[in-house]
Structures are given as C-alpha cells and as structure tokens.
Amino acid sequence: MTAEAALALEDVGLVHANGQRALQDVTLRLAPGERVAVIGPSGAGKTSLLRIAGAGLRATEGRVALLGAQPWQLPAGQLRRLRARIGLIHQSPPIPPRLRVITAVLAGRLGRWSGARALASLLMPSDVAGAQAALARLDLADRLFDRCDRLSGGQLQRVGMARVLYQAPELILADEPVSALDPALADLAVGELVAQSRDTGATLVASLHAVDLALKWFDRLVGLRAGSVVFDAPAAEVSRAMLQELYATEGSQLPTQAGSFALDGLRLPLPAAACR
Ligand SMILES: Nc1ncnc2c1ncn2[C@@H]1O[C@H](COP(=O)(O)OP(=O)(O)OP(=O)(O)O)[C@@H](O)[C@H]1O
After folding, report:
1. Using one digit for the tens of pLDDT, what is the confidence trace for 93-103?
2. Residue ranges covered by each domain of the chain
3. Which of 102, 113, 201, 268 is deepest in the core (most CB within 10 A)?
4. The dihedral of CA 201, 227, 268, 235: what is its sign?
C-alpha cells in the first residue's frame, strides 16, 4: 500500500457488532482526482464501504489508507484533521433542524477554521457570498436564510451537498446523495459533484442507486453485491451482462433515475457498452 493513493482498501472486511457481515475481501485503489461510482442492490455494503473510506467506521479485517495516512493509527488530533480533509454527503444529512441553511453550509469549513472564527461564524455568518454560491450550484440560493426544518428532504440533501462544495475537501464521499431528488435535479447535483472534482482535483466516490446516472457521470464503476466487489471497470466497459449479474437478486429490473426498466427492453440513453 503506497502513500500516493487517495484511498486504498486492501482485503477489507467488515462484520457489524451484531455479527452481520457487510463487506468481504474488498480491495480498491483510487488515485487522487479519480471519480468512482459504487453501485449494487440494497444491502450490498455501499454505505458500509463509504463509512470505512471516511474513517467513520473501522474495518474488522484488512488495511485502509486514506489521503496517505492509516487513520486508525493516528492520535485523536491528527485523525480529526484527516477527517476535516474529507467531505461526507449523507442520504439524510445530520443537520440540526433549527439551524439556518447558511450556517449549515458554512459549517463545511468549521474543521479548518480556528475555534474563534468558527464560533463567530455560528453567531454571525461570515461568508454569505460563499454559501450562496455553493447553494446556487444546486438551485437553492433562495433558501439561504431559511431554517433547515422548513426544507423538504430533497432540499436538505442539497444543503448537505452545498456544505461539501463549500468545504472543498480533498476527498468527497457521497452516500446515495440524490436519492430524494427528481431526475433533473439529481442529474444537476451529480454533475456538480463531478465538476467540483474536476475543478479542485478532489477524489470522488459516490454510491448511487441509479445505474444510468453512474454510467453517465463516472469514469469508473465498482459493482458491489453481498459485500464483495463483483466488478471494477471503466464505465465504457460495463456491459448489460455485468449489470444483469449485479442486480440478479432484483429480478429483471435495473434501477435508474427514470424508474426501473426491463433489461430486455433497454431503451434508455445508456452508453453503448451498457446495451450490449
Ligand atoms: N449498523 C449495522 N448493524 C448491523 N448490520 C448492519 C448495520 N449497517 C448495515 N448492516 C448490514 O450490513 C449489510 C450492508 O449494509 P449497507 O447499509 O452497507 O448496504 P447498502 O448497499 O448501503 O444498502 P442500501 O442500498 O439499502 O442502503 C446489510 O446486510 C445490512 O443489514
């Protein structure tokens, strides 16, 4: 395992505290700036994988290197600083309901600010333009001063994403970031995550339910099923047979933004490779 990978997992396994195995022998290596979508049926282990990648959960087997460090060997202060270089996007962002949108977005940089600046920003938002610009990218600039508990689930998801765009981390880990968005907004939002990675050089890993979104926006797809990597391939090489095998437990349907569709009647604008 060398230091230059943005993320390296080697033979990683995870058994949850209740004995449930979530991951087995997962080996993945991402170069800095790489963009990877993790796809797979429900329960495949996508969330578990991202939590391990973000040093939120410790693997029970194997080795993990994150931005050149081995997170679980760091003292608490260094682990905190490492986590501040990672942007986590959750399906349901853990944002206190009474917080204003602007404060939630500015919180993206709390880990990098001094204690005094962080406290001052909580009392009096310091970078209104910066927060507004991040929200505008997700078509939410008009909700800047709203309270988060006045937002819909999809709006809240976009606030969580704006927070990470504002944070500008080196590694973005997005766990089903667009599950509550309509197809047009989902496309916009995933496009903005990809643009952020292109513009800043950030490495991006996103778990996605919608196969068409993954194929459209990502260079590389990792298919996960029952805790194991079924394939790890450039998007252009992901074939219908590979997807069929990955989603075999879900019948003949592939999950997409436009709704499930039968593999046999594949008419969606998927890259040519996926229609083979
Ligand atoms: N905290 C937990 N305790 C025990 N088992 C868990 C826990 N979290 C997840 N699991 C189990 O680990 C396996 C993988 O779950 P995980 O949430 O990682 O899958 P997923 O691919 O993200 O699923 P989904 O697409 O439905 O969100 C599942 O069998 C799940 O039941």
Report:
1. 888 888 999 99
2. 1-85+171-276, 94-168
3. 102
4. positive
